[in-house]
Structure formats: structure tokens, C-alpha cells
Known about the structure:
- By secondary structure, this protein is mostly helical.
- The protein has helices at about 5-20, 25-40, 65-75.
- It is about 55% helix and about 0% strand.
- It has one domain.
Amino acid sequence: MNIDNAQQRETVLALKNALRYIPSHLHKTLAPEFLEELMTRGRIYGYRYRPAGSIKAKPVDQYTGILEARALQLMI
Length: 76
């Protein structure tokens, strides 16, 4: 198996996986952007969709439910 071929297949798969959450009419615009993220950062983050400003979790005791559920809410 050629390593370049395997890497190319993995890249295509990563792009397809990221684009499946995006409406199809945006694929032509976002595919090159996602590819650039993958090549430069090693992952597709979709920075275009990141909210402006910092993203911070509240302290765990400010969430409701059992500790495990509160921890999950904090991680999300």
C-alpha cells in the first residue's frame, strides 16, 4: 500500500465527514477552507463557525444534575 494513497484517502474521508454537517450548497466554498485547516492544523475545526470572543465554561457547581451530568455539561 502506498502511504501517499492512504493519506489521500484519509484526507478525503476527513473532508467528507466535516462536510456532512454543512448544507450541500456550501460545500464548494468550505471544502478548500476545511482542507487548509486540515493541512495547517492537523484537524478541521470550522473556525468560520466559531463564535466571536472567548468561550468559557461555568464552574461545575453552577450546572444542575448529578456530578457526572454536570461534568458532561461543562465539557460541552
